[in-house]
Amino acid sequence: MEKNKEYIGEVLSLGSEGEGVIKCDGVTVFVPFCLVGERVSFKALKVNGNIAYGKLTEVHTLSEDRATPVCPHFERCGGCQLQHLAYPAQLDFKRQLVSNCLKKIGGLEVRTEQTVASAKQYAYRNKLALPVGVDGSGQTVVGFYAPRSHRIIPVSSCALQAEWSATLISALIGFMNKEGLSGYDERSKKGDIRHIVGRELDGKLIITVVTTARLNLDGFVEILSQSLKKFTLWNNVNSDDGNAVFGKEWHICCGEGYFTGEDAGIKFKAGANTFLQVNDDVRKLLYAAVCDELRDGDTVAIDLYSGGGMLTAMLAKACRAAYGIEIVAEAVECANQLKKLNGLDEKMFNYCGAVEDRIDEVFEKTAGYRRAIVCDPPRKGMERSVIREILRCKAEKVVLISCNPATLARDLGLLCGSLKEDGGKLVKNPDYTPEGLTGFYRITKIIPFDMFPQTKHIETLICLKRKQPK
């Protein structure tokens, strides 16, 4: 296969990124935006041995699962990958994605249940985070990064967001033009504004403007007040060269910086940097499933990577007590406020710090009780030391929530014993059997939840039970 040459082939399957997989001239080619069964023309963009990457140029035979994308930026913006795939087929693709990762990476062949659908396929996100930069001519642009790049695709709205997203983008551009402010140029490291971030809580908006130096945002407040009824505004200062959205310096420009709400009977308080799942409807289903799995008045729940404490509080009500560990100080502050708001002072205990640093302390505090562990780690998964501590503490149950099937498969392999460490590397354990290994965990349930419709991403709930000695 030659680079820049055009070929024709049939799509045999979908890859982990949602792209079509084609076999052509002995080469496996990954081509985005085509579907299984379609015969397509594509241009070879990159060829590396028997692996290649192509660009779709024409679809000759259409799949019955092909849908019409609703967003004019689809295929150029990196936010969505699956708008061309009908929603029922998206759900099946994500179920297979989880199952395949567990088998190939973790060596685990376990039945994966049907993906739980989202009530909304569009306009479901409660959070918007957009980079603010400059284009090739030096003009300020606000939008999403193109796939695998930091080139910003300008947008005026997003189909996955609520209507307030368009208001926020328009207000920011108007404010920057009026004040003569510029977007951040990653090459020269110059500019005024780097990101705009918004989160909705019960119709109220927490807005953050990320700048390279502290700015007077009174003019932005004035523009926002013309369209938005309830909002609070932060100025976050990030002068570092890295890719992190937020810096360490925060200033309140309007309102208190936080809002309170109520969900599943839990009153809560959240700020700009508090972690909350982006899809409210699916979050409720997911958290209810976790609590139903662990509901027991004698069990102490330990919530690792606990965020703003919403799930910790729900577990405290469902169990004897709940302990949360979270590294973000603002989130722990919100969790402590949440504990007071819900009268859980004697049942909910929040620890600030890295999970790997505080987990021993929490395990010592809960020694002698029946314990269950809930773990919702970041995309990189759990630290190996955390997995070893979970195995050592011998909790009866472990419930994992993961947004990354690949790191989930790795972590599950270690928890179940299908993988083992050998000289710092992970290898398949020849002693593992589907019945489970004593001292490790056995999977009892795997349920994907479609937290992110129209994208390749999936949230997965996994329930495990410890394999007791005979």
Strand and helix map with partners:
Layout lengths: L5 E9 L5 E5 L2 E5 L7 E10 L2 E9 L27 H18 L22 E8 L5 E6 L6 E3 L9 H16 L13 E9 L2 E8 L6 H8 L5 E7 L11 E6 L4 E5 L2 E5 L9 H15 L1 E9 L5 H9 E8 L2 H13 L6 E5 L2 H11 L4 E6 L8 H10 L3 E6 L2 H12 L2 E4 L2 E4 L12 E9 L9 E8 L4
Parallel strand pairs: 3-5, 10-11, 15-16, 15-18, 16-17, 18-19
Antiparallel strand pairs: 1-2, 1-4, 2-3, 4-5, 6-7, 6-9, 7-8, 9-10, 11-12, 13-14, 19-23, 20-21, 22-23
Helix pairs in contact: 1-9, 2-3, 4-5, 7-8
Describe the protein's architecture and organization.
This protein has 470 residues and is α+β, with helices and mostly antiparallel strands. 24% of the residues lie in helices and 33% in strands. The protein has nine helices and 23 strands. The chain has a seven-stranded mixed β-sheet with strand order 8-7-6-9-10-11-12, with helices on one face. A seven-stranded mixed β-sheet has the order 17-16-15-18-19-23-22, sandwiched between helices. Strands 1-2-3-5-4 form a five-stranded mixed beta barrel. The longest helix has 18 residues. The N and C termini lie far apart (57 Å). The mean pLDDT is 94.
